[in-house]
Design brief:
It is found in: Cell membrane. The longest helix has 30 residues, at 107-136. The protein is mainly α. It contains 17 helices and no strands. Helix 4 packs parallel to helix 7 (107-136) and helix 12 packs antiparallel against helix 15 (321-349).
């Protein structure tokens, strides 16, 4: 990281200290989600006695809608005010979340806590993504996103296991949610005292773009939204694949614990199954992010969506711990192929001066997948049962992979040409 009068330099090695710090911060961001994953569906059934899968999934719906919307504004605010103020705001909003979950006297409190959690995730995760892209420059985006997402989802997995252990030994409340409270306090302190602003690195990369493309014109927010959502083939393909990917994650968050519990599995084993998906996803992203820098983006994304479809099919047809364990690992592998690579696509195509806003639009649609998963999964489960809901998600994942194969072009810059 640049200090004093030293000119900023792009690259992972040149900014290793700040990059590593941001990886650690994003692990704390992921842990805020992990505290809930194995616990809230069981809390809904055992303490609040909820019936109806769609109603139970209101907390996932609330989380998805607020996170998706906040992602959009996080990108715009990061360009306008800087990255660090947005990161700090996200951590301040995180502080009451675990306290609300601990003290919730009704399900409405849980839903409100997840509204705040969605805002926290939208502000903090989006900003750490943009800051890492700022620091590393164009050549190592896939690797950078691999580290970012590995830290976040690795922490989801570890925290899910810890929360399951605490719940089994100390009850569903308050012990599991004390993890989240500690994460929020540490995340706020580290971000305030140690993290530095990175917007100047985006400006540095933009200066090189101007030299190569002197007639460059800044698009409006509306134009960026339309390009990322509909008109630009790679950006819009990434947005739909991201949405479907998180549809699967949202469905797994809300329904998988109930499906596993229906076979009589104890809470610790359910916690292990729930953790396997993000654990494989998190760890493998370091490899898949780096591979996308070497092999390209498109084929990894296509293969990842098709792998997710196969894994969901196995989950729908399995009836025991071993089958679900292998299927969860496969689902994590498929997601790892997709997650950092989609972010790298956005970084490849979007100009540095509007990249944060493009990331915000992409994450708007991607994290809208949580809400889509809650609605699609809840309706399908209420109409046809839990396994039918998983089959529906498998079919949607298959269609998404085929759409990427047909519409997306390869975006990774070749070493012998400048990035445009």
């Amino acid at each position: 990281m640049a200090t004093g009068n030293r000119k900023p330099q792009l690259g992972l090695r040149a900014n290793l200290a700040q990059f590593a710090l941001l990886v650690a911060v994003n692990a704390l961001v992921g842990g805020m989600v992990g505290q809930e994953q194995a616990i809230l569906p069981l809390l809904a059934e055992q303490e609040f006695h909820l019936s109806g899968y769609l109603f139970l999934l209101t907390y996932v719906l609330a989380f998805g809608i607020t996170k998706a919307a906040t992602n959009y504004f996080a990108g715009t605010w990061s360009d306008r005010y800087g990255r660090k103020p947005v990161l700090l705001a996200g951590w301040l909003i995180a502080l009451p979340v675990p306290l609300l979950l601990i003290w919730a006297p009704s399900w409405g409190w849980v839903v409100f806590a997840n509204v705040l959690l969605g805002i926290n995730q939208g502000l903090t995760w989006s900003t750490t993504v943009v800051m890492k892209i700022d620091l590393v420059g164009p050549r190592q985006r896939g690797l950078a996103m691999g580290f970012n997402e590995a830290a976040g989802y690795g922490a989801v997995a570890v925290t899910a296991v810890l929360a399951g252990y605490l719940a089994a030994n100390h009850g569903l409340r308050p012990a599991p949610f004390l993890l989240g409270l500690s994460y929020a306090v540490i995340g706020l302190a580290v971000s305030a005292l140690l993290v530095r602003e990175t917007r100047q690195y985006a400006q540095l990369e933009a200066d090189s773009h101007r030299a190569a493309v002197p007639d460059y014109a800044m698009p409006s927010n509306r134009e960026i939204f339309l390009r990322t959502t509909f008109t630009e083939p790679a950006l819009s393909s990434a947005s739909q694949a991201g949405l479907v990917n998180n549809l699967n994650f949202g469905l797994s968050w809300g329904l998988f614990p109930i499906l596993f519990a229906s076979s009589g599995l104890p809470v610790q084993r359910i916690g292990l199954l729930i953790a396997t998906y993000p654990a494989v996803w998190g760890a493998a992203q370091i490899l898949t992010g780096a591979l996308s820098d070497r092999w390209g983006r498109k084929h990894l994304i296509t293969a990842g969506m098709l792998t997710q479809a196969a894994a969901l099919t196995l989950i729908a047809t399995s009836h025991n711990f071993t089958g679900w364990l292998w299927a969860s690992a496969l689902l994590g592998a498929g997601t790892a192929m997709v997650y950092p690579t989609l972010l790298a696509v956005i970084g490849d195509v979007a100009h540095p001066l509007w990249r944060a806003r493009a990331v915000g639009v992409y994450r708007l649609w991607r994290d809208g997948g949580y809400a889509a998963g809650a609605v699609v999964g809840g309706v399908a489960a209420d109409l046809w049962g839990l396994r039918a809901a998983v089959w529906v998600a498998a079919a949607i994942s298959l269609a998404s992979g085929l759409m990427v194969a047909r519409r997306m072009y390869e975006t990774h810059p070749r070493p012998d040409r400048a990035v445009t």
